[in-house]
Write a structure and sequence with these properties.
With 123 residues, this protein is of the alpha+beta class. The protein folds into two domains: 1-30; 49-122, 2-Layer Sandwich (Alpha-Beta Plaits). It has helices at residues 2-27, 66-77, 103-112; strands spanning 54-61, 82-87, 92-97, 116-122. Strands 2-3-1-4 form a four-stranded antiparallel β-sheet, with helices on one face. A hairpin with a 4-residue loop joins strand 2 (82-87) and strand 3.
């Protein structure tokens, strides 16, 4: 009888481990996307850097994982004339835009994604 109980417990542990692994593969292992699939990446149509005369470096607080980075990139990339790329290690966004934009507008876009812009500088 004791062997049966131990076997049943081991089976439950293995099932839990398999379930957790499948969830991490399907939804990613991240701080902000554990319960839902990752957002689909918004692709920029115009990737010619010469078409973007204004470049900004934004410091963004609160980005921890790749899903966080995708949220911020998507917040910018859905706007025509903007192309954002996040460097998660530096918590920095390299933003290329076709027309000049105010720091207030930049902070508003970052806030709409759920993060805080600490600073922005034009490169």
């Amino acid at each position: 009888m004791g062997d049966f109980v131990i076997g049943a417990i081991l089976v439950l542990i293995v099932m839990g481990a398999v379930y957790g692994t499948v969830r991490r593969i399907r939804y990613g292992s991240s701080c902000c996307g554990e319960r839902t699939p990752a957002d689909k990446k918004v692709k920029v149509q115009d990737k010619d850097k010469t078409h973007y005369p204004y470049t900004y470096s934004l410091n963004v607080e609160g980005m921890i994982c790749s899903n966080c980075a995708r949220h911020v990139e998507n917040a910018f990339n859905v706007n025509a004339g903007m192309w954002a790329k996040v460097n998660l290690e530096k918590k920095e966004v390299l933003l290329r835009v076709k027309s000049d934009i105010s720091e207030r507008e930049l902070a508003g876009i970052v806030a709409s994604a759920g993060y805080t812009m600490i600073g922005a500088r034009r490169i």
